[in-house]
């Protein structure tokens, strides 16, 4: 069985994480929480029904390469899903690799839009027997 995403996050790569924190917290009024695991730190703004905005500081910030919609695989199975997508001819941009708190993989939809799957490290990467 191929796993299906249950929640969604929109991930932004930003040039100045502290400026971003101030904007989303002070200007937009979102509850923004600092996280460890990426330098200098990264941010999560929890929205409703399991939706999140996530921010990472990056030296490679260009218009058009952010944000990325990231689907959360609560039950795991990222290896199975990415293998199945590749077998269907989907362009895999980044194979399954370590990400803060777990594993992720990036791929393109038919129009070239970047999407990603992420799962926590605690759940199995494969759900096959």
From TrEMBL:
Residue ranges constituting the VOC domain according to the UniProt record: 6-120
Xref: Gene3D superfamilies: 2,3-Dihydroxybiphenyl 1,2-Dioxygenase, domain 1
PROSITE patterns to which the protein is assigned, alphabetical: VOC
Highest rank taxon of the organism: Bacteria
InterPro entries the UniProt entry points to: Glyas_Bleomycin-R_OHBP_Dase, Glyas_Fos-R_dOase_dom, VOC_core
Name the record gives this protein: Glyoxalase
Native species: Glycocaulis albus
Taxonomic classification: Bacteria, Pseudomonadati, Pseudomonadota, Alphaproteobacteria, Maricaulales
């Amino acid at each position: 069985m191929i796993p299906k995403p249950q929640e969604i996050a929109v991930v932004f790569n930003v040039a100045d994480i502290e400026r971003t924190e101030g904007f989303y917290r002070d200007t937009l009024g979102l509850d923004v929480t600092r996280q460890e695991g990426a330098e200098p730190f990264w941010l999560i703004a929890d929205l409703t029904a399991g939706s999140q905005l996530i921010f990472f500081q990056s030296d490679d910030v260009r218009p058009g390469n952010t944000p990325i919609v990231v689907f959360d695989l609560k039950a795991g199975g990222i290896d199975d899903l990415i293998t199945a997508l590749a077998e269907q001819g989907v362009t895999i941009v980044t194979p399954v690799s370590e990400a803060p708190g777990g594993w992720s993989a990036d791929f393109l939809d038919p129009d070239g839009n970047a999407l990603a799957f992420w799962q926590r490290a605690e759940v199995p990467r494969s759900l096959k027997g």
